[in-house]
Amino acid sequence: MKTLTMALLGKGGVGKTVLSALIGRAYSDRGSRVLFVDADPARGLTSALGAIPVKTIGEAREEIISKARSAGNEKDRNELSESIDYLLMESLYESPAFSLITMGSTSSLGCFCPVNSLLRETIRAMAGNYDVIVIDAEAGIEQVNRQVVETVDYPIIVTDNSMRGASTALLIRDIIKRVPGMAPVETGVVFNRVESGAHGLVRVIEESGLAFYGTVGPDPEITAIDVKGEPLFSVCASAPSLSAVKGILSRIEMSA
Ligand SMILES: Nc1ncnc2c1ncn2[C@@H]1O[C@H](COP(=O)(O)OP(=O)(O)OP(=O)(O)O)[C@@H](O)[C@H]1O
Ligand SMILES: [Mg+2]
After folding, report:
1. How confident is the model over 34-47, as a mean pLDDT?
2. CATH number at residue 193
3. Domain ranges, residue 214
4. How much distance in Å is there from the Cα of 125 to the middle of ligand 1?
5. Which of 49-63, 65-79, 228-242 has the highest mean pLDDT?
6. pLDDT(27) > 80
7. What 3 state SS string does the chain have?
8. Of 25, 43, 193, 228, which is best to mutate to test ligand 1, by the most ligand atoms within 8 angstroms of its C-beta?
9. Which atom of ligand 1 is nearest to the CA of 193?
10. How far is the CA of 92 from the centre of ligand 2 (A)?
11. What's the gap in Å between 179 CA and the centre of ligand 2?
12. Fewer beta carbons within 10 angstroms: which end of the chain, N or C?
């Protein structure tokens, strides 16, 4: 089965991290193997899942760059390519219900394109072991393309009932179109933390060629988890937000 890739995008604080966790949970409930990718430098998803990875991809990348700089001869370079797999394995957090890689941040400035493409290759090989990859794409779709996977099947733009949220959605749609290699099956929008999508805003979304995937209402279960600082993945099975997300996934699957 082909690995399905989804990425959650949108302006700050709209619920990308919450919806990433709920989408992963919905797939896990069906028995799918889920790989989360936390592409937020602030590691929001990693903490929302209650996960503690040994290493971030950013840290692995730093080690690779410093080893590459000191690799003098062919033997050194061979050792380096062998250690990349190992470094990446250290960056993979595994639990019975899901796996996670945390991108973290990187302090090396400039383009280390060979390192990025090497990492992407290794992530691609790793991704083949999963049914679904859910990316909390805080850092944007270009970063996902450069550092994680070339393309995303379903970019999901999260918004609230604000014109600013809708404008951000259109901006993200334009960026997706410009990123080389990014060829989504469909790009859609989810309204989060609202009872229903404001009519005018849903129209703006649909008229701009984006799919309207549905709405996730304000959920007291999520608020309770927030207060206690519990992992979002363990939200109770009857939580309205989880049911809403399951409905949205059925809607997405119909478009496939
Ligand atoms: N449907 C919901 N019901 C109740 N609370 C929610 C809902 N969606 C999100 N929240 C809460 O709103 C806050 C922001 O959500 P979240 O962290 O997922 O946003 P984000 O888009 O990832 O933010 P950032 O841009 O800072 O990474 C969190 O406290 C979260 O628990
Ligand atoms: Mg977040």
Report:
1. 92
2. 3.40.50.300
3. 4-254
4. 31
5. 228-242
6. yes
7. CCCEEEEEECCCCCCHHHHHHHHHHHHHHCCCCEEEEECCCCCHHHHHCCCCCCCCHHHHHHHHHHHHHHCCCHHHHHHHHHHHHHHHHHCEEECCCCEEEECCCCCCCCCCHHHHHHHHHHHHHHHCCCCEEEEECCCCHHHHHHHCCCCCCEEEEEECCCHHHHHHHHHHHHHHHHCCCCCCCCCEEEEECCCCCCHHHHHHHHHCCCEEEEEECCCHHHHHHHHHCCCHHHCCCCCHHHHHHHHHHHHHHHCC
8. 193
9. 1
10. 20
11. 22
12. N
Using the mean position of ligand 2's atoms as its centre, give its distance from the Cα of residue 16 in Å. 5
Total number of domains constituting the chain: 1
pTM for this model (two decimals): 0.93
Give residues (CB < 6 A) around ligand 1.
10, 12-18, 40, 44, 138, 192-193, 216, 218-219, 222-223, 226, 241
